[in-house]
Specification:
Keywords: Hydrolase, Metal-binding, Pyrimidine biosynthesis, Zinc. This protein is an alpha/beta fold and 434 residues long. Helices cover 31% and strands 23% of the residues. The protein folds into 2 domains: 101 residues, Urease, subunit C, domain 1 (Roll); 315 residues, Metal-dependent hydrolases (TIM Barrel, Alpha-Beta Barrel). The structure holds zinc ion (ZN). The site of zinc ion (ZN) has 4 residues, from loops.
Length: 434
């Protein structure tokens, strides 16, 4: 059997576990064999890990309209460098992605860029204004994979209920940025000891949990009313969980069998409000960085599966915008290029978090939310893969990012686990083998 690439002595890690080493032969877009064979190119992978490609459910690529912050090319390049083969783009662009033609245009443009694959999300309501629902069926037919007004919050519970019902009938999950606008008010950071000391307007943890509590009741209402209940998929997806209390509510609702899912970001798993002591807007993000107790709870939630996946919420802005003072700078942290090494280092290496569980939260978890089958490392599987190095340590240097946002709260951190090669259906979309 002749293939295109042979990974010699690669350590296989997927969501099912760690499977020792194998010679993985890739060709025709698939894994042809786990026991070697002839290939045009041989990659020595001793001491390196091969995993299914990562899937990001939440990234802001800013196209159309905000290309000064990021565009499809730079964003999908950054994703490929981060080991991502697939990415869901948020629709809060200029204009908002709320029509089928806009979804098609994004997909056509992304198809010309041979990097990570793009799966556009579309808005739940027209213009993300929270009033009039978008055409879920047409958006679905155009290739939208979920509906969300992210960037904004869904204030009208009646609109959300109708939207959930409509989206569910077309097989689309709805993702929500769960924060109560009234409780959050003008908060620029977590409300607590640090915000009080600094005299800055705070965003209380209860802004998140109050909204989650309401949304869970909305899901319950819709779920009871649905005539045909889609089995095994998420109806409502909570984005970027940040609080221990919010997690408790999600955990309890999942135990009761409500069709919900939830994600957590790399920053909410590694940073706290104490990082804002120096008033640096690099750490300004929505929802805000919380306390160490919240971080501990979120890591636990990721482990047990109450949190289904890690999603980056990659949110690039220009350096000028991020250089404004803390009150005026925009919210957001870019992380596509560091998410995997960051969490591999901070969770697996430093805290003993199980590697295969982390891989699951980057691969199977997000895929399941969209109703996609898992990719496991076996013969015949789609060759959308990442080869990464668990041992070589490198310092985060944002100046070398492919993303236009060349700054990072993790600049200078020494991390391991860097992706070396990313393949989409057997094609190399990132090569960092040096
Ligand atoms: Zn959001």
């Amino acid at each position: 059997m002749k293939g295109e690439i042979l990974f010699k002595n690669a350590t296989l890690v997927d969501a099912r576990g760690e499977h020792g080493t194998a010679d993985v032969l890739v060709g025709e877009g698939r894994i042809l064999s786990l026991s070697g064979g002839e290939a045009q190119r041989v990659v020595e992978a001793k001491g390196r890990c091969l995993s299914p490609g990562f899937f990001d459910l939440h990234a802001h690529l800013r196209e159309p309209g905000q290309e000064v912050k990021e565009d499809l090319r730079s964003g999908l390049e950054a994703a490929a460098r981060g080991g991502y083969t697939d990415l869901v783009s948020m629709p809060n662009t200029t204009p908002v992605v709320d029509r089928a033609e806009a979804v098609r245009a994004l997909r056509e443009k992304a198809a010309q860029i041979d990097r990570a694959r793009l799966h556009p999300a579309a808005a739940l309501t027209q213009g993300q204004e929270g009033q009039v629902l978008c055409e879920a069926r047409l958006l679905r037919e155009a290739g939208a994979v979920l509906l969300t007004d992210d960037g904004r919050t869904n204030e009208d519970a009646g609109v959300l209920a109708l939207g959930l019902r409509y989206a569910a009938s077309w097989g689309l999950p709805v993702a929500v940025h769960a924060e109560d606008a009234g409780l959050r008010r003008g908060g620029v950071m977590h409300e607590g000891e640090v915000s009080w000391r600094l005299g800055l307007p705070g965003n209380p943890a209860y802004a998140e949990s109050a909204r989650i509590a309401r949304d869970l009741e909305v899901v319950r209402y819709v779920w009871e009313a649905l005539e045909t209940r889609p089995q095994g998929r998420s109806l409502l997806h909570f984005q970027h969980l940040s609080t221990r209390r919010g997690l408790e509510l999600v955990r309890q609702a999942k135990r009761e069998g409500l069709p919900i899912s939830a994600e957590v970001t790399p920053h909410h798993l590694t940073l706290t409000d104490a990082h804002l002591e120096g008033l640096d807007p690099l750490y300004k993000v929505a929802p805000p960085l919380r306390t160490w107790a919240d971080v501990e709870a979120l890591v636990e939630g990721l482990l047990e599966g109450s949190l289904d996946c890690v999603a980056t919420d990659h949110a690039p802005h220009t350096e000028d915008e991020k250089s404004l003072d803390l009150l005026r700078a925009p919210f957001g942290i870019p992380s596509l290029e560091v998410a995997w090494p960051l969490l591999y280092t901070e969770l697996v290496q430093k805290r003993g978090f199980p590697l295969s569980v982390l891989v699951a939260r980057f691969t199977d978890g997000p895929r399941r939310i969209l109703g996609l089958p898992p990719i496991h490392l076996e013969e015949g599987a789609e060759a959308s893969l990442v080869l990464w190095d668990p041992s070589q340590r490198r310092t985060v240097d944002p100046k070398g990012f492919a993303s236009k946002a060349r700054y990072s709260p993790w600049a200078g951190w020494g991390l391991s686990g860097w992706p070396l090669l990313t393949l989409v259906e057997g094609r190399v979309v990132f090569e960092g083998l040096g």
